[in-house]
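Entry 14. Structure prediction run on the chain below.
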Amino acid sequence: MNTIELLKKKRDGNALSKEEIEFLIKGYTKGLIPDYQFSAFLMAGFLTGFNKEETSYITEAMLYSGKVLDLSDIEGSKIDKHSTGGVGDKTSLILAPIVAAAGVKVPMISGRGLGHTGGTLDKLEAIPGFRTDLNISAYKKTLRKCGLVLVGQTKDIAPADKMIYALRDVTATVESIPLITGSIMSKKLAEGIDGLVLDVKTGSGAFMKDFRSAKKLAESLINTAKSFNKKVVAFITDMNQPLGSYIGNWLEVYESLLALKGEIENDLTELSITLAGAMIFIGKKARSIEQGKIIARKTVESGAAFAKFKELVKLQGGDVHYLEHPEDYPSSKYKRILRSKRKGRITKMDTYQIGLAAVELGAGRKTKEDVIDPKAGIIIRKKIGDEVKEGDVLAELYSESKKGLSTAAEKYLNALIIENRKIRKPKLIKQIIK
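Output returned:
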C-alpha cells in the first residue's frame, strides 16, 4: 500500500478499509511511517470524520498492537467499568469490591491523573505499600483468588494507543470521538473482559462539556463494544460539581471506605451502587440493573464489600491497618478553612477550576513527572443547591505548601457562585443507553 495515496483518500472524505487502517497503524507503531505522515492521517480523519466501521477497525488495530489477555481459564463473567474522568470520581474503589463480593470478576486496568482529573492508580497508591505494577501472572493470580484486581497499563497492552495519544496531544486531534473511542476500547478489550459498563461524564468538570457530545461518545463506545460482541451499558452522568465530598488521593480512599462500610449516603454512593448494579446485571448475577442495585446494597450492608476491599489491598501489598484505622494516616502540615462571606444558595460550581485547585494543593499533576502528595486535597462542605449563611464553612483545604494553599483558596472561592435564589440540585444520572 502507498501511504500518500491513503492520506489523499482520507483527506477527500472517503472511508478506509480494515486493511488500510491496519497498514497505517501497524506501520506507525513499528516506525515505518513517520510522525509527520501519521499526523496528516489523524488530522484528515479529524476533519472529514471516521464512520462506525472505521472506528471499529482503528480499535482493532490498536488492540492487537500488543498483548490481549486470555482470562478464559478463570471461571465466571469478567466485567469492567470505564469512566471518562472527573473530579472526586472514586467509584472504581467502591464498585469493584462490591461487584466482586456479588460473584462477578472485575479485572480493572486503570490510569493516572493528569490535569484537573484524578487517577485511580494514584488513589490506590495513597495506601502505603499498595502495588499497581503487577505482571500478567500476578494479575491473573490476584483475580482468581479474590475476584478482582486493580492495576496500571503495562507497555504490552495496546502500545499503539500510547504512541498515537502522544501524537494526538500535540496535533490538536484529541477531541475526535472515533479516536477517543479507539483509545478507550483498545485498552479495555485487551483486558479479556466479557462486558463493560461506561460512565460518560458531562458538565464543567468533564472532558465532554455538553450533553450532546457526551451522548455521541457514549453511542460510539457502545457501537464499538458491540462490534466485538461485548455486553455493554452506558450511563451519561453529571460532572457540574465534584462527585462526593472529598477530593485528593487519600481523602478519596477515606470517602470510599465510608461508602463501603455504609456510613455515608450521597451522590457518590448513588452512582457507585448504580454502576455496580449494572455490572452485576451484565455479569449474569441479576435479572435487571435494579435487582443488581439491590444485590450491591446487600454486599455493603453485610460487610462483604468492605471485607473484599481489604482482601484486595492485602493481596496487592497494601497496609490494611489504615483501612481499619484511617485516623492513624499522616495529616497535612497546613489546613485552611474557607467560609462564606454572604448568605444564599450555591447555584454553580466550576468543577474544572476546583480540580485545578486540588492540583495546586499537591493532589494532582501539572506534568507527568510531578510527584503527588497523597495527603493533599479538599473536603467540600457545601454543594449546588445547599443553603449557606455568612460564616458557614464552604470547604477545608489541606496541603504541605503555604503558597499552594493560598492559590487553591482563591481558585476554589472563585469557582463558586452564591445567589439569593432557589435552584434544583443537578440530576446525577442523565441517561442510560444500552
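The longest strand covers residues 195-202.
Filed with the rest of this week's runs.
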